[in-house]
Design a protein that fits this description.
206 residues; alpha+beta; five-stranded mixed sheet; 4 helices
């Protein structure tokens, strides 16, 4: 039985959205997950989700694991209908049925949501694309996802450095905007120079 309370705002009455169910599930559309419930919370859409996995093998011995507990994990995803989306992943805690197995319990993982990440993988990719390829303002992207400016800039610089490093290794003097995000404040842009001292193994990225 699911007991996790997905709404964090307790002082205001929560209204169940009329589009809950198949419509919200279709809009959410994250592979490997299904929507269990949806609620409005202070202008944000909160979704309670779980994976569709039913048979999970033990990582050590391969026996079919048994569901032991649940653990809520909060992340943010792509906006729906212009509203930030907060996802509560109701993670399963599995246990091995074999008493002699060294792997007593483990928590399920999914590639769409990295461990200790505040955003889904597709939300991070979307933020990078909005700032880099579409020249979106960092503050606007942050507002759409319901996160801080620094969170988006950390995504931009991390992914941008990787893209620039790959571009320089291929011999490009300046990657396209779709390959590396750049700041749109007019103060700084990302570029690589083949004659600069070595950084990241080959080039310095400014």
């Amino acid at each position: 039985m699911i007991t996790t309370k997905i709404t964090r705002i307790v002082e205001e009455p929560q209204v169940e959205a009329e589009v809950t169910g198949s419509v919200v599930a279709a809009l959410f559309g994250l592979d490997g997950f299904r929507v269990l419930a949806a609620a409005d919370a202070g202008g944000e859409l909160e979704l309670l989700v779980e994976t569709i996995a039913r048979v999970v093998p033990c990582p050590d011995c391969g026996a079919v694991g048994r569901a032991k507990d649940r653990r809520p994990v909060w992340v943010r995803d792509l906006p729906i209908g212009g509203r930030p989306v907060v996802v509560c992943w109701h993670k399963r805690v599995w246990c091995c049925p074999h008493a002699l197995c060294s792997k007593k319990t483990w928590t399920e993982q999914h590639p769409a949501i990295e461990l200790r990440s505040c955003l889904t993988d597709r939300a991070r990719a979307w933020a990078f694309d909005q700032v880099g390829a579409r020249d979106g303002a960092v503050s606007r992207v942050a507002s759409a996802l319901g996160v801080g400016w620094a969170t988006i800039m950390r995504i931009v610089t991390t992914r941008g450095a990787k893209a620039l490093r790959m571009a320089c290794r291929r011999g490009f003097s300046r990657p396209s905007p779709s390959m590396a995000a750049h700041e749109v404040t007019g103060q700084q842009s990302l570029s690589c120079h083949t004659t600069a001292p070595e950084v990241f193994g080959e080039r310095r990225f400014l």
